[in-house]
Amino acid sequence: MFTQVKTDTEIKHMRESGKILATVHQLLRNKVAPGVSTKQLADIARDELKRLGGKPSFLGYPGGSDSFPDVLCVSINEEVVHGIPRANRVIEEGDIVSMDFGVTYKGMITDSAISVIAGNAKKPSVTRLIKDTEASLLAGIDVVRDGVRVGDIGFAVQQSLERGGYGIVRDLVGHGVGHKLHEEPNIPNYGLQNTGPTLQAGMTIAIEPMATLGAHHVVMAEDGWTVVTADGSLAAHFEHSVLITDDGYEILTTLS
Questions:
Q1: Closest Cα partner for 38 from 82, 71, 78, 84?
Q2: Mind listing the pLDDT tens digit for each residue in 60-105?
Q3: What is the rounded (10 degree) CA torsion for 179, 182, 185, 186?
Q4: Distance between CA atoms of residues 190 and 95, nearest Å
Q5: Measured between alpha carbons, how far is 212 from 84 in angstroms, rounded to an integer?
Q6: Distance CA 207, CA 190 (A)
Q7: Mean pLDDT to the nearest integer, 9-25
Q8: Would you give the end-to-end CA distance of the chain in angstroms?
Q9: Which of 124, 142, 175, 192 has the fewest CB atoms lying closer than 10 Å?
Q10: 7: which residues sit within 8 A by CB, 6+ positions away?
């Protein structure tokens, strides 16, 4: 299903969904600390989402050897995305903690991810990885407007990350979002300008660069969900759901 131009009512519901998501992410950001388990973070997200009136979009999502078993993906260090929360997975000082979350509100879905460092970074390069991956997300968003082509977005993300010499994960991509969690088109984090499908005002997309301190290759972990870097290098992941407008964009998954 190619992402559709949303009605005014659908956009209103996505704004509310995104606001809920951003509120949960802000809470989680403040809860990340050494000694906290990834399952505790998921439970915090579940309880706050229930309080705010949203529904989890990831719980029960089909894929892997079984459906996804929790409301939040929590990925640590070399884990790029889709980490399953576990009570025995305890965060340590200096860990990169990536949290990917999806919210359904009145039938409309938003999707967003953040990466944070627990306590103090082990190396300056880790701090730069986090900062530069988020900057590449904003670079991709900055070219969004009515008539933008998917290759324009990928090109902007790629140019931003290549300046830092990062590995750009190619096997995982952004996507359309709204009526379903994953809609077409795929939005890679690399590409050529003036190529790929053309997007219209009123469509909604999720842009999500994933970068590593090593190579771009990734592999699947034994749990059938967690994607990790093939060379064991550290990774970061940022994502926003974005509404395309006539003259630019509106980030839906933010509190500002």
A1: 84
A2: 999 867 899 999 999 999 999 999 999 999 999 999 999 999 999 9
A3: 160
A4: 27
A5: 20
A6: 12
A7: 98
A8: 30
A9: 124
A10: none
